Amino acid sequence: MKNKKKDCCNSIIDKKLKQKSVIYAVLSGIFPHTFCILFILFTILGLTSMTYILKPLMMSPYFFYILILVSLIFTTISAGIYLKTTNNLSKKGIINKWKYLTTLYLATLGINTSLFLVVFPLAANIGSGSVVESDSSIMLQVAIPCSGHAPLITNELKAIYGVTSVKFSLPNLFNITYNSSTSKDEILNIEVFGTYKAQEIFNK
Q1: Domain 136-203 in this protein, CATH class
Q2: What are the domain boundaries of the chain?
Q3: pTM tops 0.90, yes or no
Q4: What is the pLDDT of residues 81-99, one digit of tens each?
Q5: Are 202 and 184 in contact (CB under 8 A)?
Q6: Contact yes or no for 72/25 (Cβ under 8 A)
Q7: CA neighbor of 77 nearest in space, from 137, 142, 21
């Protein structure tokens, strides 16, 4: 009877630890991207001074790769704590818990994938502007390493007087419409394109 109670208690503890670790994995996927999320939020709220502070981070081509690495490190720490707490921090224990560990890492990768394929592209197109029939347009292919940098590019383009609309499409295309108040050369020569090279696909 005592063994049954002990097994039951261990099962409950193990379940709670699994739940906490999965939650930690989800947070591990989101937390490293806090700076980018704040940049998007400040942009939406029009807090230009705050976006200016975060801009240098976004200007690094390696920034998001570092964030993904950090999220995987956090997940590994979470997995290690779980394995140690359940006395499975060994080769045999890892094999025994492979289903749980796979779920943990897939959760982290899933969060990152959702951010890059859904959240960041949507954020880049918030308030994309309206197209007027008389506007000119240009399509640019920008050498951004991932869609996480798209909000930075759209933010910089929208700051140009005369740009009426900017629409981002995966993986790295920006459709820009502008009126006679600006020119194509002015668009192509903005500072951000010094880091992330822009190539003209077509213009109208």
Answers
A1: alpha beta
A2: 2-124, 136-203
A3: no
A4: 878 888 888 888 888 888 8
A5: no
A6: no
A7: 21
